[in-house]
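Fill in residues.
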């Protein structure tokens, strides 16, 4: 859950992006920026180190991102660096995405399967989840062979687990209770 500070910064960025008609572009670029920071944790350490001068941090941001991301987003990064809030960037990105999904009526669904879903099944699951939620669905899939078969679907704070692993665990528990 994002902090109030993160939500306010994210909402401000969202409003600027909305006025410019660049909501999705900024979201994609924000994800890419977060990925850069995740893949280079030392970069975030540098940006948060008080002994490094602000102009050096801004120069670093320009060297890394200028020409690669929208100037609105680069200015946003400069601002949160100046305000010593760069460490909240991932929270801000999450809050931005949530605001976008809320306004667009989008629901995020995660599906875990034992084997990759083929395109037909992927589209069928997406369509079914859209009908169930009444929203546009962004479906993310992951593969975990340890579930053996079936599917685990997460929507909002709900989880539907029809995996073979869970069914076997339930059966084992029932047998244990029956024998004991």
């Amino acid at each position: 859950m994002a902090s109030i500070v993160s939500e306010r910064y994210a909402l401000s960025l969202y409003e600027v992006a909305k006025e410019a008609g660049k909501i999705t572009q900024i979201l994609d670029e924000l994800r890419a920026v977060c990925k850069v920071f995740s893949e280079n944790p030392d970069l975030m350490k540098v940006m948060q180190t008080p002994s490094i001068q602000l102009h050096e941090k801004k120069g670093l941001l320009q060297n890394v991102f200028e020409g690669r991301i929208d100037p609105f987003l680069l200015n946003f990064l400069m601002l949160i660096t100046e305000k010593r809030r760069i460490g909240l960037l991932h929270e801000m990105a999450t809050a931005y995405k949530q605001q976008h999904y809320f306004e667009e009526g989008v629901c995020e669904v995660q599906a875990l399967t034992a084997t990759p879903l083929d395109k037909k099944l992927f589209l069928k699951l997406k369509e079914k989840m859209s009908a169930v939620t009444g929203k546009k669905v962004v479906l993310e899939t992951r593969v975990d062979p340890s579930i053996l078969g079936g599917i685990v679907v997460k929507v909002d704070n709900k989880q539907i687990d029809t995996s073979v692993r869970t069914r076997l665990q339930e059966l084992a528990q029932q047998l244990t209770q029956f024998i004991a």
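The mean pLDDT is 94.
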